[in-house]
What we know:
Helix content: 55-70%
Largest sheet: 4 strands, antiparallel
Strand content: 5-15%
Mean pLDDT: 91
Low-confidence stretches: none
Number of strands: 8
Shape: elongated
Amino acid sequence: MKRIFIILLFAATIISAQNKTLSLEESIRIGIQNSKELIISKSKTRFAAAKISETTSQMLPQLKFSASYARLSDVPPFEVVVPFAPMPIKIQDVILDNYNLKLSLQQPLFTGFRLGSLKSAAEYNYNASELEFDAATNDYAVQINEAFWNFYNSEKVVELIKEQLVSAEKHLADTKNFLDNGLATMNDVLKLEVQNSNIELKLIEAENNRDLARINFNRIIGFDLNAETQISVDSINPAPENFEVQNLIVEAKNNRKEIKSLESKVLASDESISAANAGWFPSIYLFGNLYYNKPNQRIMPAKDEFKDTWDVGVSLNWDLWNWGYTSAQSTQATELKLQAETSLAQLKDVIETEVIKEFLNYNKALKKVEVANKSVEQASENYRLTVDKYDQQLASSSDLIDAQAYLLEAETNLTSALVSFQISKAKLNNAVGRKIY
Length: 437
């Protein structure tokens, strides 16, 4: 019952979250928690942390235990023939069961700097993986940001078309009254009926686009695709900032996690070269062994009983000739460093281009908002005047239809411009390395 209760509570929590009206900040938080991409990225970070532990363990004393048993074939006992003795003298009985227990301790004293270099390389790679996770999280926050605003845009378009449809139906009703009073023609009524039908078709298309935008938004934040998710936006008031593109480029090169990650990988490649070159040096180990064998070969004569012995020493291993194995490893490590350094230089060029691109998109989006605001003002005033004239029969039904279409287009363009501004601002901040989530 307890398990069932926990499962039901968890399910209720998920359903409650999916039915909740989400803000942008909540959407980003939930999306980051549910992201499968970020789960993989975080796993890579834990993998890198485990690699540090692995290399550190190789620098510490290694304690090993081994055991074996062997059954030997029967052989004649060890006997010595003595002159003038009637029978051979038995020196050693045959022992057919052999038991060997061994406890070994080994401590590396010098490995040609290999272990120290491998540990440093692992630490640099771990730092790089953490930076990559931060960059991936910021990138995912931008994706959520874009999906959120596209969903908002599609909902806003539906609202605008519904408002236009209400106005069109009112105008149609007024026109029918005009027709009854001989102030309008049947052609005027038919024109407005066609206009209403066109608006209804636009509404169907807009609602379809809204549903698709909601599905994409649900996918991004990890909700069920068919969840009736709702979002809330207080207001959109673009606050223009005076950016200098060169300052943004400098900021990006100082802040971008991808650059810092590759810089760590270059440092790790230096350590990898040092580890590869360790093959040119000898390796020295301190060792000690404790034996508990039956029979113990060091005790003569051998007896069918357990005896313990030990040894302590220092060993040296040195590859004097390995057919170029060490040289090949050094070359590989050197080439990997060259690749990392070249990738870093390429990345800086790409990021500079990205910053310039997003800077231009930001300015373009800001200008579109200004133009769209003016267009809405003009279209609203034109629509107001046209409605007044139409009510006084000083404007035709075609004029009214055109004014209505211009207003809908202007309001839709303004919404699209505001959304584009929000998205371009988030992308610019991400391009210069600013935290979005």
